[in-house]
Write a structure and sequence with these properties.
With 204 residues, the chain is an alpha+beta fold. It contains 7 helices and 7 strands, in the order αααβααββαβββαβ. It comes from Dactylosporangium salmoneum.
């Protein structure tokens, strides 16, 4: 008997010795492993590796579902001011830590809504609203976000501060797409960035 035939025989014998309960447990373990691998792959595909926030791909996929579910939302696009000098002077490691800190602050402000890193030092968020309500909550959320980002941060013994230029596009139930809201918020952000005395601009 050659080695391959012997291995097949051994495997077959082991399988024959398995009880039904053992076989079920083995199959369940295999399924769990495959599901874990699939979940890990989904996470890597839909999230930013540095900050752990959702990425643009996930925004494009989840944004329409959020809009369809609530019908009312505010899309926020923000770009950091003062980040490049930190990155240039103190290196990419310090710059990366600044981005992670901003991402954490964005996540805490957004809470159960969607926080996104678009690219570089540009971030976004989708703030959902109830279909009915006396006043929208997004203005307070945007103000809290701007305030949180400006708080000083200490990295490797150095104190850093950044601010954000913020653009907001609001959908109050009118027919539109998440892509259009992102486009409007992005244009509003550039208007805010062009005016150094204005931290945020709402698309109108």
């Amino acid at each position: 008997m050659d080695i391959l035939s012997q291995a097949d025989t051994t495997t077959g014998a082991r399988a024959a010795e398995e009880s039904p309960e053992d076989e079920v447990a083995r199959l369940r373990a295999q399924v769990a492993m495959l599901e874990a691998e699939r979940a890990a792959l989904w996470w890597e595909t839909n999230h930013d590796e540095l900050t752990g926030l959702a990425n643009r791909r996930h925004l494009n996929a989840a944004g329409p579902r959020l809009l369809a579910r609530t019908g009312r939302c505010a899309v926020v696009v923000l770009d950091l001011n003062g980040f490049k000098p930190i990155n240039d002077r103190y290196g990419h490691a310090a710059g990366d830590e600044v981005l992670r800190t901003v991402a954490d602050r964005l996540s805490r402000c957004v809470r159960d809504d969607l926080a996104v890193r678009l690219s570089g030092d540009e971030f976004a968020a989708v703030l959902t609203e109830a279909r009915t309500g006396p006043e929208p909550r997004w203005p307070a959320a945007v103000e809290a976000l701007a305030t949180a980002i400006t708080e000083p941060m200490t990295i490797d013994g150095h104190s850093f501060s950044v601010t954000a230029s913020i653009g907001v596009a609001v959908n109050d139930g009118e027919p539109t797409t998440i892509a259009e809201l992102i486009r409007r918020a992005d244009l509003a952000m550039y208007r805010a960035k062009a005016d150094r005395y204005c931290s945020n601009v709402v698309w109108d």
